[in-house]
Write a structure and sequence with these properties.
Distance between the termini of chain C: 26 Å
Structural class of chain B: alpha/beta
Largest interface: A-C, 40 and 44 residues
Shape of chain C: globular
Number of strands of chain B: 10
Number of helices of chain C: 14
Strand order of the largest sheet of chain C: 1-4
Strand content of chain B: 15-25%
Radius of gyration of chain B: 19 Å
Strand content of chain C: under 5%
Distance between the termini of chain B: 34 Å
Structural class of chain C: mainly alpha
Number of helices of chain B: 10
Helix content of chain B: 25-40%
Chains: A mainly alpha, B alpha/beta, C mainly alpha
CATH topology of the largest domain in chain B: Rossmann fold
Shape of chain B: globular
Largest sheet of chain C: 2 strands, antiparallel
CATH class of the largest domain in chain B: Alpha Beta
CATH architecture of the largest domain in chain B: 3-Layer(aba) Sandwich
Number of domains of chain C: 2
Oligomer: heterotrimer
Helix content of chain C: 55-70%
Strand order of the largest sheet of chain B: 6-7-8-3-9-10
Number of strands of chain C: 4
Order of helices and strands of chain C: HHHHHHEEEHHHHEHHHH
Number of domains of chain B: 2
């Protein structure tokens, strides 16, 4: 079977679009890990809930798709706030406890969604029908919209972190917690904000992912893996890193799948992650 | 031949030279003090000797062996032990167990005996405990052998840290701010203990301290560092009258602890 | 009570419990309202396998590192054992051991680079490794039968004396149960001895204050690698035991999708809920959870949710785990009494 240049181009573009979804998951994960030093194992489920919320609103109740996404962002952010306040804050830095609590939560969320919604495949409606033609490859419009939205949100987040008072405070907390404390920055507020923002972004990611793939209560696990892959490659706590990592991951998966089959597309990036962790733990753009 | 020889020792962090071109000797049986204003690089020196950091350049030769860049456990194996700043202990183990764990290098982890706990293992265990008790007596903690380390009062914890380091049976002992945070009574108690140790065991010691009186009274020789460089070296009298030293400490209280 | 008497009574309790365990298949024959006859024996075998895995996971935890690669190493051990028997015709007794060795070898390969990175990254590495193993098993169709897997119904450990053959893996599964108990007991014995020897104290020192441990000469990396390799050896054996029981392996092996990384999470849960600080914690946690799950078949689909909730509750209210219930009861009793008397509980 010959692989044409067109196939490659198509593959790259598809990969970029998938990358957009990954970026949205990765941003939340990298911020939470960078600022709170917690690996939020339930983040994939937050992504999944975002997707299902949009499904609930738009498909089952006829709400306008974009409005549904916004509502989903808000409710997921609230979920994140509750998670932080009730489950994470009281634990005061005990590593084993964080892992247990967040994995327990992920199990609860998966089961809840599975029981709430009927079986059978579900998919979110397309954002845009039809496709463009770029460089001889056909790209569905919705995928382009997906990546545009992802990059836009990333830009907004970046601006927030570098230009606003709270954003700068968050960056400071990520780099030096004690220093930030001494400057009067409230660590609890920082934690709450970062989980809320991260969750909201994951919700959008879920909405985008849900329109490309089928919705399923267990989609969070895979999403979580992608998120981890991306933040390791891109670098912990780094936004540019998350973007580059996400795009790289998407394209790499796509191309590898084209040349070596879908399985390798999944395995090889993981091997890459491990290689990064060993040889360049701070990733492409990270500090530390 | 000095016990420990540092030549051209340097450590650079990013753009900052924490320690530059440091040369000094530690002679067998002496108590050497390293003093200097805050941020002078004293802890970095210890960290380089003990393997926490690798020197950027320079060499460390201990008993004719080049130990530059050795990792912490190899340094311990070579015969150098360290008492850390603050009280670093094994908190949920007893005082006795802490010292026994300090004697790690003198336990032989043999397979058979740990699996089946035979009489030879029990004998070795007993010997370890006896030796640990001896060390505890030396530092005056034999009464507290079964207390949890975290339950000890601050001053006694310091003594325990010393006991743990002694269990290594080192030839060279590094004391990192041994009397910081102590009142006058505790300070003189600790100094007496250190002096007694040196007499009894012939141990060589290097001490980092801020407490001037303590250092002057205890150390045979003193090395003064400032901004990562050696600015003076000699007996306490020579140091006290050295203009460079006085200038480095200008504005700093004599009894800064 | 003297030291001697205490040890004797502890030993006696141990013997009684062990005898009970051995008698379990007969006790449970009546079914306890759920399942009958051989069904419970099958469950008990699985419990045994998971106890071995969970206890091994805990051994790694004793040096302060957390591995979530348990499922992955079970896969390696199970597949290695089954393939070596099915394709190379080796005796299952041998391949059970070899499966463990292969798992240990893989662990040895990745241990040094993995331990060089910070704690949380180590967790991620082990998690990803498990994932990679899973996908590799699905990828190499020629060798492993891919995602469909392969079966080997004729292959079971067996002992032939003269003209009589005892096959481990008959319809009743009772001999396989005893085989499992035997193998698991030996492995647990090794782990127990290690933990309660000088080696165990070294692990404790690494766990409590690794900087201090280093400075008294402990080679932390060597010790971590050692126990990681040993633990993965045992986990590989657990995988082999599983394989020769179910006679069919695939990356999505039933029951309960055992090679999926959820299993590693469940092992973590069993360990924490049982009591991560105690040798018996994983044993208690695993048995309790798995048995309860079977008894509660009625709740079926709700199970992961209940498990997750229990995990969270235990972390918050009983961090030392169920093993320490004895310590928690008096505290709770006092609090309850205080509530009823309308005052805040005072220190009794």
């Amino acid at each position: 079977m010959d692989i044409t240049g067109q196939d490659v181009a198509q593959s790259i573009i598809n990969g970029l679009c998938m990358g957009g979804t990954y970026i949205l998951i990765g941003l939340g994960l990298t911020l939470i890990l960078g600022i709170m030093n917690i690996l939020q194992f339930a983040h994939g489920e937050v992504y999944m809930i975002g997707a299902f919320t949009v499904y609930l609103l738009s498909v089952l109740n006829g709400v306008n798709l974009y409005v549904a996404v916004v509502i989903s962002m808000i409710t997921t952010a609230i979920l994140g706030l509750i998670l932080e306040r009730v489950l994470l804050r009281p634990l005061k830095g005990q590593f084993l406890s964080y892992v247990c609590v967040t994995t327990g939560l992920s199990l609860i969320l998966q089961t809840t969604i599975m029981l709430t919604f009927s079986k059978g495949t579900k998919q979110l409606p397309s954002l845009y029908k039809g496709s463009f033609e770029i460089a001889g490859a056909y790209v569905s419009r919705e995928r382009v919209v997906a990546i545009v939205i992802a990059l836009l949100l990333t830009l907004i987040l970046y601006t927030f972190l570098k230009r606003t008072k709270y954003g700068l405070a968050m960056t400071a907390s990520a780099q030096n917690r004690e220093g930030a404390l001494m400057q009067g920055i409230n660590p609890n507020l920082m934690s709450a904000m970062v989980v809320a923002i991260g969750s909201a972004l994951a919700a959008v990611g879920g909405a985008l992912g849900g329109s490309i793939f089928n919705l399923d209560p267990y989609m969070g696990g895979l999403a979580f893996m992608k998120g981890i892959t991306l933040i390791v490659i891109g670098g912990l706590g780094s936004i540019p890193g998350a973007v580059v990592g996400g795009l790289l991951l998407g394209v790499a998966e796509s191309l590898l799948a084209l040349f070596f089959g879908a399985q390798m597309g999944i395995i090889l990036p993981l091997v890459l992650v491990i290689a990064f962790l060993i040889f360049r733990p701070r990733g492409l753009f990270g500090h530390d | 031949m000095a016990l420990l020889e540092a030549r051209g020792l340097s450590k650079r962090f990013g753009g900052l030279d924490a320690v530059s071109e440091l040369d000094f000797d530690v002679n067998e049986g002496e108590i050497l003090g390293i003093i200097g204003p805050n941020g002078a690089g004293k802890s970095t020196i210890f960290n380089m000797i003990c393997g926490t950091f690798k020197p950027t350049s320079g060499t460390l030769v201990f008993r004719d062996k080049d130990i530059t860049g050795y990792s912490s456990h190899r340094v311990a194996r070579s015969g150098i032990a360290r008492v850390f700043q603050g009280n670093v202990l094994f908190p949920s183990s007893t005082v006795l167990d802490n010292v026994v764990m300090g004697a790690h290098l003198h336990t032989r982890l043999s397979w058979f005996s740990f699996l089946f706990g035979g009489p030879s293992a029990r004998r070795r265990d007993k010997a370890l405990r006896t030796r640990a008790m001896e060390i505890l007596e030396l530092v005056g903690l034999s009464e507290d052998a079964d207390t949890l380390a975290s339950d000890l009062p601050h001053g006694n914890q310091r003594h325990l840290c010393l006991a743990v380091a002694l269990a290594v049976e080192p030839k060279l002992l590094l004391l990192d701010e041994p009397v910081t945070g102590m009142n006058t009574e505790e300070v003189s108690e600790m100094l007496d203990l250190v002096r007694m140790l040196r007499e009894k065991t012939g141990l060589t010691l290097v001490v980092i301290e801020h407490n001037m009186k303590a250092v002057m009274g205890l150390c045979d020789r003193i090395v003064v560092v400032s901004h990562g460089r050696k600015i003076a070296e000699g007996t306490s009298q020579m140091i006290a009258n050295d203009p460079a030293v006085i200038e480095a400490y200008l504005g700093v209280d004599d009894d800064a602890a | 009570m003297t030291e001697q008497q205490k040890r004797l009574s502890k030993g006696l309790v141990g013997v009684v419990i062990y005898a009970l365990v051995l008698a379990l298949p007969w006790i449970l024959r009546s079914g306890l309202g759920v399942g009958k006859g051989t069904y419970w024996t099958h469950i008990l075998i699985l419990v045994g396998v998971m106890i071995l895995s969970t206890s091994s996971m805990r051994a790694i935890f004793l040096t302060g590192e957390m591995s979530l690669g348990t499922a992955g190493f079970m896969l390696v051990g199970g597949y290695a054992a089954a393939l070596l028997s099915a394709k190379a015709g080796l005796s299952p007794w041998l391949t059970l051991l070899l499966g463990g060795l292969v798992a240990a070898a893989v662990a040895g390969l990745v241990a040094y680079p993995f331990f060089r990175v910070k704690g949380i990254y180590f967790v991620i590495c082990t998690l990803l490794l498990g994932f990679i193993f899973l996908y590799m098993a699905g990828y190499f169709k020629g060798l492993t039968g891919g995602w469909q897997g392969f079966q080997f119904y004729d292959i079971s450990p067996q002992i032939t004396v003269g003209s009589r053959t005892l096959k481990f893996g008959t319809k009743t599964n009772i001999e396989y149960f005893y085989l499992t108990v035997f193998v698991v007991s030996i492995c647990l014995f090794f782990m127990y001895r290690m933990e309660h020897s000088r080696v165990g104290m070294v692990w404790k020192s690494i766990r409590e204050a690794d900087v201090l441990a280093k400075s008294v000469g402990v080679n932390i990396m060597a010790h971590k690698i050692f126990i990681f390799v040993v633990a993965c050896f045992f986990i590989g054996i657990a995988g082999g035991l599983f394989a020769f029981h179910v006679h069919a392996l695939s990356p999505t092996s039933t029951p309960a999708n055992i090679f999926h990384f959820f299993t590693s999470v469940y092992c973590l849960m069993y360990m924490v809920v049982g009591g991560a600080n105690s040798f018996y914690g994983p044993i208690l946690g695993t048995s309790l959870f798995m048995v309860l799950r079977e008894l509660g078949r009625a709740v079926g689909e709700y199970w992961p949710m209940i498990a997750g909730a229990v995990l969270i509750l235990v972390v918050f209210f009983m961090p030392k785990g169920l093993v320490a219930t004895g310590e928690y009861l008096p505290v709770w009793y006092r609090k309850l009494r205080g509530l009823f008397k309308g005052k805040t509980p005072s220190s009794a």
